[in-house]
Design goal:
Layout lengths: L2 H13 L4 H14 L4 H9 L4 H14 L4 H22 L10 H9 L13 H21 L3 H14 L4 H13 L3 H13 L5 H13 L3 H12 L6 H13 L3 H14 L4 H13 L3 H13 L5 H11 L4 E2 L1 H4 L2 H22 L9 H21 L7 H4 L15 E2 L5 E2 L9 H22 L1 H8 L14
Parallel strand pairs: 1-3
Antiparallel strand pairs: 2-3
Helix pairs in contact: 1-2, 2-3, 3-4, 4-5, 5-6, 7-8, 8-9, 9-10, 10-11, 11-12, 12-14, 13-14, 13-15, 14-15, 15-16, 15-17, 16-17, 19-20, 19-22, 20-22
Amino acid sequence: MDARALYQQGVIAIREQKDLTAGRQLLLQSLRMEPENDMAWLWLSRALSDPARQRQAVERALAINPENAKAQQLLQRFEAGAHIQTEAVSNGAPNGTPLGAKARSTALLVPVKPKTPAAPPAPGERKQIQIAAYIKKAIAQLSEGDEEGAIEHYVRVLQLQVDHEVAMREAVRYLVKNGYEDDAKELIWRAIDAGTQHPSIFITALDFARRDRDNDKADALRHRIAQLPDAPTDLVLKMSGDLVKEGRYGNADALLREVLESRHDDQKILLAMGELQNQMGRPRESMIYYNRAAKLGVSSKEGREADKRLANFAPVLTDRERGSVVLAVREAAAIGVFFLLLAWQDSGLNVGQINLRHWAGVVLSVLGGYLLVTATSSPQQNGLAALLGGTKPKRKVNADELETRMGGVLQEPTQLPIIPVPVRIVVGVIGAALVALAFWWVFSTSLELLFNPVPPFIPDPFAEF
């Protein structure tokens, strides 16, 4: 006989035959087979004689179906009845004695100010109260060594909240310990199918799948974990590391790419992706991810490591270098140093003989060199480019794009304004003219000797005769 038939016979025995004992036995048999029948728990409360057990049955019905109006009414009656019993006891009813006819009459003779029953808790609050009570009972049973009893209460919590993390962890732990691994898996997958967002539940399911050597299920779980908004970065790195250890580089690559779609500024994942690409023999892709990690800042451990790894490859030109005025001035200063050496040579390798014209030439060489650098290698300096009519490139920038230039240098797509070519030509011509003039000033003596050499003095050997 199935649970539904037992339930119907139990109801008939109570309602029509007034046989509470038979009805109670039938309902208990039905509930063993179908414990989630809230109406069966409600009818069972009518067949019990102990008020405490009656109330437990009503609370169980509400736990299964908080919207059961009849169960809510009965619970309110129990709460009101508890107030009446307390008042009767305080007026002479003996403790521990059921409230009989005499006690009721005594309570009626003494005027008692009626108390307004407390409003029942909201369904959500009631559920949390029940969860806390079940967990408390489970802990108490564990302290007594009753693991199966504790499992039963943890499962009741999961019936109220399918993905309660504490109850799930403890239920799975003791189910596996007692040889009920299939039941533990059923609880895990019930929570996953219900749409849980707790990473810990997915991790447990992944452990089961890996232990069963079910790679397809494990990959599906990794995919689900990668989509979780609260999935810890260290968990993602561990999953990709496990795939690498298994030699499944393609799966690890797909996993990290999927995570980076929503967490494109996670330095740890970018660094791990760079290392993975390097292991897969993709140096260019490796540089892309190292560069992205380093761009987020080198103050962190991951940023410094990415910058260090990037230095082992070809240099990468970024907007930070393009827009730097300091770098342009440094290049111009190098030109000035060269002209200072020319001035030193022109003064006969005597620093004291370097005159004002020489120094003016050195200064002019720095200015002209800066204009030449601006026109050629640094036409995107911050502020100056916009001042000279520069505009930003119109094409869309891809964060993973690197352009190869001469000498193996890689360049990121730029978003800085660049000085227009006609303006750069004019700036370059002016800079070249200043450098030429500076060269004439710092090397004038040498040039005059070059064009008008002084014949060497040759003494006449017969002059003294």
